[in-house]
Amino acid sequence: MTDDPLANVFDDVVRRNPGEPEFHQAVSEVLTSIGPVLAKHPELARQRTIERICEPERQIIFRVPWVDDRGEIRINRGFRVEFNSALGPYKGGLRFHPSVNSGIVKFLGFEQTFKNALTGMPLGGGKGGADFDPKGRSDDEIMRFCQSLMTELYRHIGHYTDVPAGDIGVGTREIGYLFGQYKRITNRYESGALTGKGVDWGGALVRTEATGYGLALFAQEMLRVRNEALEGKTCVVSGSGNVAIYAIEKIHQLGGRVVACSDSTGYVHDPEGIDLDLLKSVKLDQRARMELYAAERGLVHASNNGSIWEIPCDVAFPCATQNELTLADARVLVDNGVSAVAEGANMPTSPDAIDLLMDAGVAFGPGKAANAGGVATSALEMQQNASRDAWSFEHTEARLTAIMKSIHDTCYAASEKYAKPGNYVAGANIVGFLRVSRAMVALGLI
Ligand code: NDP
Questions:
Q1: Is 327 helix (H, G, I), strand (E, B) or coil?
Q2: Tell me: the pLDDT tens digits for 204-227?
Q3: What's the farthest any 2 CA atoms get from each other in the chain?
Q4: Residue 92's beta-bridge partner residues?
Q5: Is the pTM of this model over 0.90?
Q6: Which domains does the chain possess?
Q7: Which is catalytic among the residues 91, 115, 127, 197?
Q8: Whose CA is nearest to atom 7 of ligand 1?
Q9: Residue whose CA is closest, atom 3 of ligand 1?
Q10: Distance linking the first and last C-alpha atoms of the chain
Q11: Which of 72, 212, 226, 285 is deepest in the core (most CB within 10 A)?
């Protein structure tokens, strides 16, 4: 024990959650931000809200048996961590990736709790997934896997309880198979039990684009504070999945030029600007690798020698996975004159890289604020499901734009009040913490 209460909270989290470095990292980032808030609000310290927020309300781990196309039985592990429901039903995506384990799901659920609070919508936080690798699997295998996963998960979810959505490896196809099985088991067409649905069967326009669009809009707001704009800026976006593709689309609409993107096999530098139609055809229609994009454009495919962050840019958008932008990458970005970094992925920038970027005066948008457009639009999908309505693309995009501006402005205002103006990491953590904590206090000891 030390006489620093927040250091003691962290030690306790590490002791109770051994071998989960990503979860420790996510908690540590929040703890380093909230000291000034607890000093101003000792009642929250007395109520031990941060200690309670660090402990998930419920964790479910289960077996997912399924049969592959050769008739072999396969066994995966499924997870759902229901982190916090003070503000609303648990809400957060499902990730299918071989790296998924308890620590990864906990870090994502913890981040999600703060992110969802930042949207100002009635959403608690949760996350889930499985250590299943969808790469190279047939449609039938994906369907059987999703059906098996839902055969356990259905008893834990529901539109007033817990509402999963997509994440890495889980898009509209997977949500379709999951929703179909949920409907079949429960005998209810309960649209609000899952978001990210296809627009023909209860989904919302703009949900597919929302995280990437919202990210570009958040970056635009950060630049606006500095009397700059995305127009004319050279940008680099890592990844080439859902978040990356629609970030590129919105950056191009706002007049920026994205000159590189990647997948787990490497990156492509396309100095004339990414050809978005080709990228969508390669990644969304053909489910192929960046190598094919490079071949079609007559470019080099850099297969993991060097880093995408070596390509000079004004604005960087890490949109692939956690800890993909390291201290060495941040140094190169700063040396090349980057002016802003906005996180599309969850926790893609390592803590020492964040410090370096912020010390160098780079505008830094943390994922829990910058990528919150996806979950905010999921809440809009739930609103439409509840009222059996369907809004137009323009209306929904206008709502998303207003929400991203509000998240930006709220984080900025909190950074002015409690930290350094423009420290969005502190701003986002503080706003999220205050909203969740106050609800927890109001609801009694939960
Ligand atoms: P997708 O599965 O659609 O795309 C993920 C992309 O990142 C792919 O290009 C993938 O390459 C690459 N990638 C994944 N893991 C790795 C890895 N270990 N190393 C290198 N590249 C990797 O996922 P999303 O676009 O939905 O998610 C991307 C990030 O955004 C995640 O951090 C997610 O949590 C976050 N996020 C997503 C939201 C959403 O609405 N979808 C909302 C908020 C945050 P490959 O195909 O080769 O694996």
A1: helix
A2: 999 999 999 999 999 999 999 999
A3: 62
A4: 164
A5: yes
A6: 58-189 (3.40.50.10860), 209-361 (3.40.50.720)
A7: 127
A8: 320
A9: 241
A10: 25
A11: 212
